[in-house]
Amino acid sequence: MTDSQLRDDVDAISRLKYAYLRCLDTKQWDGFQDCFVPEATGDYNGLEFADRETLVGYMRENISEGMLTLHPVHHPEIDVDGDTATGRWYLVDRVIVDAVNFMLEGAAFYEDRYVRTADGWKVSHTGYRRTWEMHYDLTDMKVKVTGGVSSDRVRNERGHVANED
Amino acid sequence: MTDSQLRDDVDAISRLKYAYLRCLDTKQWDGFQDCFVPEATGDYNGLEFADRETLVGYMRENISEGMLTLHPVHHPEIDVDGDTATGRWYLVDRVIVDAVNFMLEGAAFYEDRYVRTADGWKVSHTGYRRTWEMHYDLTDMKVKVTGGVSSDRVRNERGHVANED
Amino acid sequence: MTDSQLRDDVDAISRLKYAYLRCLDTKQWDGFQDCFVPEATGDYNGLEFADRETLVGYMRENISEGMLTLHPVHHPEIDVDGDTATGRWYLVDRVIVDAVNFMLEGAAFYEDRYVRTADGWKVSHTGYRRTWEMHYDLTDMKVKVTGGVSSDRVRNERGHVANED
Known about the structure:
By secondary structure, chain A is an alpha+beta fold. The first copy, chain A, has helices spanning about 5-25, 30-35, 50-60, 150-155, and strands at about 35-45, 45-50, 65-70, 75-80, 85-95, 100-115, 120-135, 145. Strand 8 (about 145) of chain B pairs antiparallel with strand 7 (about 120-135) of chain C.
């Protein structure tokens, strides 16, 4: 394989990962599903999935409109070997469920596997291990959350709401 | 166009974006202005600008020394077509105005347009759509902020200041 | 140097930086040390080190198990000149010491220097300048921290612990 082909593969795998995370955070579940091969497996710090259908179904059901998520990744360490590849990424994530005054912040290292298909590179395994995680109870914090479908409904449920505009 | 030229363009556009954000967060307004063509437009989640002069003037006036900003971008999805290009980026930003106990955290997807000029690639349009945003009232939080010119002046205005050093 | 060699150098330097930060945040001090030449210097916003031994020794001693760190970098601006190179990166970092209810968030621009050795690219100088920094006293915040060796021991020391699971 030439250098140029190798770079094309790394670029394509990166954009696959970005699409996966963009679809996750914007709740575009059909686009999210397209990132995987059907037999893809997952292991999110012990939360395991045996195939794509189970994994995507779980996300579709649990990441509802009232849950805001943020999943940027950093530091790609991608190695291509013919028609398969591995990728390590440094995730810094956040989950906010304003209706129950919950916020999570955390970090993790993804260890993914990718496979070349007739339809481009796809995820064959994704998973991460946490380095740390923080859970906030927002009840007594003066925080206003906006975003997502249900945020207007829930944003006034806490007693103290700051910086109304 | 060869692969190598295409990669040079993507690299140059990336560094243009990094310079734009570095100048923004370090308040180097002349360098910030150099990132745009004069006819550049902007649309920051509905805050619109019809040309570079208006856009840069707004930033120069509103992002004063007492306002600390953070604008890292992630997940470049850049497509070059001859002398124009488009770029999607995932922004995670923060704005802190300690004097009024205000902090904003949020995320957005940038959708930029770029144009090749005799002086290199420049921004012809920049704008983003928010995925979520949080506004914090820091009044009752034990937080000490440092940075920027006026931070020493304002850092003791809150009653509770943590971890003085 | 051909374009392709130049890109290989930039890629290798990027992965060196990612390894440096991954070893830092996962406390793999031998791997961390391998990122530097022995005569490497450091300057973290005024905290200076005259050689690798002092720098690595300081990190090994001060970043103990109960201290959780996060060091993702963004916006690589890397320039290679033969067997040396410079790199600017935008750091967004966090330090958590749950046992003393302390959290730091901040941002900085790294200005690194790299050198090509028989064992690949290494760091010859690393350092950054802060744009801003926030210190949180977590005492009265309802936050649960997990991660690291000692986190289970300390996580119940604050009065209010949210979202036990």
